[in-house]
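Quick start: what a row looks like.
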Amino acid sequence: MTLRSLLVAALAALAIASPVPNPDIEVNSLESRQSDTSNDLENGDCKPVSFIFARGSTETGNMGFIVGPGVCSGLKSRLGADNVACQGVGGAYTAGLIPNFLPENTNQASIDAAVDMFNLALQCPDTQIVAGGYSQGSAVISGAVQDLSDEERARVNGVVLFGFTRNLQDGGRIPGYPQDQTKVYCAIGDLVCSGTLIITPAHLTYGLNAGSAATFLAGLVSV
């Protein structure tokens, strides 16, 4: 079964089990149209806010399809589409499965690819940087934030992590980065957040948290 078919099955099960609307769920036409690829920073598009996202293993594009596009469009709806640049982490980060088994739950080349995107954002002198990652992408973003210099890290206003593969190892935070600027989403039943690499349906439901994450990040910037 593919990751996409697992997602459909998980969301169907969730809909049956939870018929009452959840305030964290944000579904609108803009989010449904958002692409799985976004290269605003690579295209030289400096905006007041730059959102950098690393997708999960085997996801398509450079933003993925489970949660990244929803957070991007959620930020645009809250802050104005003309105020937000969205950039996925691609290049050496191919979102393959094998790097999950390494000590950092990803490889250095993938972390370096994310650092490159932060460096692009830092070339926009007035932009406010926010970031996010899902599954292996959460380890990629966490590692990249840690690899920034103190001065560069201070330019990062907030980070959201979904299905954080280093949640247990790092105590639910990014080492060396302010905890009050970090929001970690770990669904009930997501064993990845408990220090394993076992994928359950819960690990595929973080699109439901896209609106909440966008609200959190929007509250850490000003436009």
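That is the whole record. The domain at 3-218 is CATH 3.40.50.1820 (Rossmann fold). The helical segments are 3-17, 29-33, 68-79, 108-122, 136-147, 150-153, 210-218.
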